[in-house]
Structure formats: C-alpha cells, structure tokens
Predict the structure.
Amino acid sequence: MDESQPRRPAPSGGERLPCPDPAVPHAAGGLTVTTDDTQPSLPTLRALLAASRLGILATIKSDGRPQLSPVMPSYDGETNTLYVSTTEGRAKTANLRRDPRATLEVTSPDGRSWATAEGVATLTGPGTDPYGPEVEALVEYYRRAAGEHPDWEEYRSVMVSDRRVLLTMTVDHLYGAVLG
C-alpha cells in the first residue's frame, strides 16, 4: 500500500467516539453492554464467553491498524475477567505493552452467535522462577481453562522456558448477537 496516499474515511452510518485514554476503561470504570431488542442479554453474552475456548484477540499495531491473533481465552464470569496465555516476543504482547487496549471476539461452534469483549489488558510475566507469582498466575489460568495438568512440574518449567505471559483483561464493554 502506498503510505503517501491518504487513507479513505471510514464508512458512514454511525458516529465514532474518540478513543479513550487507554488507561481508563469505558463508562467511568463500569461495564457497558450494547444491547437492544435484537441482541442477547448480558447473561447470554457472558455464557458464550465462558464456554468459548477459541477466540480472536485484536490489538493495535504501531501504525494504528488492528493485529489479530487466534487465542485460547478463559473467562471468569464472577470477576468479569478474561485471561489469555501468550509468550514474550509475540506481536500481540509487544502491541499490548505499547497500548493496552484489546478486543476479544468469540463465536459459537455453529458460528450463529458471537460476543465481543473490550477492555484494557495487563500483562504478567514472563517469570524466571517456576514457583514465582508470574508462573502461579499461569497455573491458575490453566486450571480455569482446562482443569488439572498431568505434570505440574513440567508445566511450570515450560512456562519459564517459553517465557509465557498472562494477559488479564477486565471486560468493560460487551456486545454480540444470537442469530436464529
């Protein structure tokens, strides 16, 4: 793409609000839900997030364009928090260290329902101690996402050697659809 050419304006059809300060969640710290008569309820959207083990995480590249990554999220409905394990050195990790705003989209297995969660992510790790707090956070992530691991010693060692990082995001805006 020729970067000397101006970008086309966004399609009309809705007012876009200015980007908020990345350190301040939407709605003065509370969860906002976009909903109307055709969209699912908050419990329905949260249930879809909780059931999904595959999603697409969007972060913001340094040039402002989205960067999309397939991830295995874990959602805690009691705390309204999403967790994703990634590694240091990945594009999404670098993007989030620069700009912590993130969006995760999940779909139902048949593709007829989807939920999109937005928020500000924090990154924990990578850890250097298999029993340090960074690796403990990854152990808890694994337990929430998949249950007990058959070999926790091996898991802890791999988390350190892979330079694993835990993304934690409190959801501050949630929207989606259930079709048919």
